[in-house]
Amino acid sequence: MKTLVLFAHPRTDRSEVNRPLLEAARSVNGVTVVDLYAEYPTFDIDVDREQERLLAHDAIVLQHPLYWYSSPAILKEWQDLVLEHGWAYGHEGHALDGKVALNAVTCGGGREVYTSRGANEIELRALLTPFEKTFQLCRMRYLAPFAVFGAGLAADEGRLETHAREYADLLGALVDDRVHLDRAESILALTDDLDHVLADREAI
Question: Measured in whole angstroms, how far is the alpha carbon of residue 18 from the centre of its chain?
Fold first, then answer.
């Protein structure tokens, strides 16, 4: 699948985790990476250009930090403008039918925080429900999020290389059609069970 990563971070220069993930995404052949804040610093989004990008790709990954249980503002602006009625959804809106979508997020809290018994009292996937329902309305297949939990400690704990490698593996598997989509749709987070979501190259 041709894969598009829409990256949204207002201060990439200060990011310890999203920056290496971004570099990992750029290293994968067959992946197109778009830095939304770099391209649209005034939020003047080129709708035609963005829609053309979506049409040219089969899988859409929204990469961003989790800000106030959601995303940085530019992703909401992007959704509001680009996913037009009559184009992305509605009776006549079939441009995105069957495409794959997911969020790739960095979270400040550890995995245990994002459970029904954790401090947030909710799973990460449930927090991302607005994205899931938006993409489902566009008749797309929404996969469980790729998540880096405890992002603030990732560098100190020496986890950055592992997270970047796993992210690159996921993107490469999307490009090579090696993602078990049914499994990836049904779990809470891809990183909980990534080995069982990605098929071996020999299984293609």
Answer: 12
The Cα 116–Cα 127 span in angstroms is 12
Q: How many domains does the chain have?
A: 1
- Which residues span the domain enclosing 23? 3-203
Provide the whole-model pTM. 0.94
- CB 75 within 8 Å of CB 8: yes
pLDDT tens per residue across span 110-167: 999 898 888 888 999 999 999 999 999 999 999 999 999 988 888 788 888 999 999 9
CATH number at residue 107: 3.40.50.360
DSSP string of 80-111, one letter each residue:
HHHS-BTTTBSTT--TTTT-EEEEEEE-SS-G
54-104 pLDDT per residue, tens: 999 999 999 999 999 999 999 999 999 999 999 999 999 999 999 999 999
CA angle 82/95/136 to nearest 5° reads: 80
